[in-house]
Amino acid sequence: MALILHGSANSTCVQRVMTVLKKKNAPFELVPGDFVAREHRYAAYLEKNPLGQIPYLHDDGTQLLPPSGDLHKLAKFEQAASMELSQFDPSAAGLATKNIFKKRFGMKPDKEGVEQYKARLIGKLDAYEKILSHRKYLAGNEITLADLFHLPCGAMLKEQGYGFFKDESRPNIVRWWEDISSPRPGRLKDGA
Predict the structure, then answer these.
(1) What phi, psi does 140 have (nearest 5°)?
(2) What is the mean pLDDT of residues 92-120?
(3) Is the CA virtual torsion 30, 89, 160, 100 positive or negative?
(4) In this structure, is residue 191 part of a structural domain?
(5) pLDDT confidence of residue 72
(6) Residue 187 belongs to a domain
(7) Does the pLDDT of residue 51 top 90, yes or no?
(8) Does 186 map to a domain?
(9) Environment class of residue 158 by beta-carbon count within 10 Å: exposed (0-12), middle (13-18) or buried (19+)?
(10) Is residue 167 in some structural domain?
């Protein structure tokens, strides 16, 4: 069965995926959407990809958020690591830059920038809540480095007084954060 790739052939992100699929001689079907009309923000698309971004790739009706052997396990890990790197980190690190690092260099925090980063992060955490409602960790039911990658910026959010990981309206994030940040054998006392 061919992979189904949702996205625009003009998108560099979609082109990256198509390049890899072609290089691997993996058959795929490109399903274009009207992303200028923000089709990727419609409920039907968000059910498949809670981050509401392109590309979205699935195999025989199974999303690349699925369990089905080592290749899928690796794909889920890569997806979760990418979410941290390109979704969570820029927003959380942006808040730290505006609130912490500017002060350390004698500059005033940028209140407008803080609100922008905060709003972005809240949107990302809404998607995380949905993802974590179906699994224990971001890449499945086993903790991975993709989860632990969140600890440094997550700790800085706590340092800034944000309660994103204690917000009862996001019980799956609360559960996940308590788990990944709690001390366990092989971890430092502060959860790292």
Answers:
(1) 150, -145
(2) 91
(3) negative
(4) no
(5) 81
(6) no
(7) no
(8) no
(9) middle
(10) yes
